[in-house]
Specification:
By secondary structure, this protein is α/β, with parallel strands linked by helices. It folds into two domains: 8-212, Alpha-Beta Complex (Spore Coat Polysaccharide Biosynthesis Protein SpsA, Chain A), CATH 3.90.550.10; 213-335, no CATH class. 50% of the residues lie in helices and 16% in strands. Strands 1, 2, 3, 4, 5, 6, 7, 8, 9 and 10 form a ten-stranded mixed sheet that branches. The longest helix is centred in the C-terminal third of the chain and has 28 residues, at 302-329. It is globular and about 75 Å long.
């Protein structure tokens, strides 16, 4: 007697995330999709807490990295290699999917044979109530809502890909991205370059559990997004391009204006005439973000939207600093790996 293979394999990379992982896996198990149609593979990235114990309560398969932690890119590769389903769904350990999300993933692929990947968005009800956490998660949702449709990038927080396409492009680049960075964006670019199509559907939702701090947000935006993303765009000679979830011309202009405002404010120490240039530059940024601010006002009120303004200016300043640093250091970046990471991942995992 043979056992029918699952249609979906849900891969959850986990590192020291026991409390959030429990909620994540409980949410997956609460899916309206019949349980025999999907399997859960958790990859523990050498956690030193009870992450593995929590995973055993829910997962069909628990794997672990060896000589780690090695980062979510490596953990996801390990899970995808072990997958029995023809579709691999990646869910981060700090995301709780809606009961309908898995069935919607399956429905999408059944209805769109010409697409090889699809990803969703956070909902508008993040668990953490602090202002920075609310801002960060709601911003993510707004961006994905604004760019719904065919995409050139990918998001692994709540996204799915046909396993054959994933293996064809050799998965996530774990050599280049040994910690959470833009490994999913890079995967999306490579899938697109190989001729595979990707869809962004913001109705495929998950609730984010992560608590953001101002320092953590700035560090992530500079070190783990702005710099590596600029390196990636330079490598592709695509700095001038724009598209879904890419860096638009308007965003580039706002980044330049934020830098100009900062320089002008410094120059006011010697000549007050520079103040007008700073004021005009900042005013243009605010006007250019009116649509975003109006959306924040609609979901969280006027006071919330007002507090978003300095964060947007700070975002552009960080983006400019990151771009400058990336340009200055690009020549020192190692050549892209020879894409043997999937085989390396296969060797560097053990079952628990």
């Amino acid at each position: 007697m043979t056992t029918e293979a699952p249609l979906l394999t849900v891969v959850v990379p986990a590192y020291r995330s026991a409390p959030m992982l429990r909620a994540c896996l409980a949410g997956i198990n609460a899916s309206e999709l019949p349980r025999h149609q999907f399997e859960i593979v958790v990859v523990d990235d050498c956690s030193n807490d009870s992450t593995g114990d929590v995973a055993r309560e829910f997962a069909d398969t628990l794997l672990a990295t060896i000589d780690g932690p090695r980062g979510p890119a490596a953990a996801r590769n390990i899970g995808a290699i072990a997958a029995h389903g023809s579709i691999v769904v990646f869910i981060d350990s700090d995301v709780v999917v809606a009961p309908t999300t898995l069935s919607e993933f399956l429905h999408f692929f059944n209805q769109h044979s010409d697409f090889s990947a699809v990803f969703g968005a956070y909902d508008d009800a993040p668990r953490e109530t602090g202002f920075i956490s609310q801002y960060r998660n709601l911003l993510h949702r707004y961006v994905h809502l604004s760019h719904a449709g065919q995409a050139t990038t990918f998001w692994a927080g709540c996204g799915a890909v046909r396993r054959a396409a994933f293996l064809a492009v050799d998965g996530f680049d774990e050599a280049r991205y040994p910690r959470p960075q833009i490994e999913d964006i890079d995967l999306g670019y490579r899938l697109t370059a190989a001729g595979y199509r990707i869809m962004l559907d913001p109705e495929l939702i998950g609730t984010h559990l992560k608590r953001w701090t101002l320092g953590g947000m700035l560090r992530t935006d500079l070190r783990d997004r702005a710099v590596p993303w600029m390196h990636l765009l330079m490598e592709q000679r695509a700095v001038g391009g724009s598209g879904a979830l890419n860096v638009s011309r308007a965003e580039k202009l706002f980044t330049i204006l934020a830098a100009l405002a900062a320089i002008s404010l410094v120059l006011t120490v010697w000549a007050r005439e520079w103040l007008w240039l700073a004021v005009v530059s900042l005013a243009i940024i605010v006007v250019g973000n009116v649509k975003l601010l109006a959306w924040f006002r609609s979901v969280r009120g006027s006071w919330f939207a007002l507090r978003v303004v300095p964060l947007r200016i700070l975002f552009y300043l960080i983006g400019g600093a990151g771009a400058a640093w990336a340009i200055a250091t690009y020549r020192f970046q190692p050549v892209r790996s020879t894409r043997t990471q999937l085989r390396a991942s296969n060797r560097a995992a053990d079952a628990r």
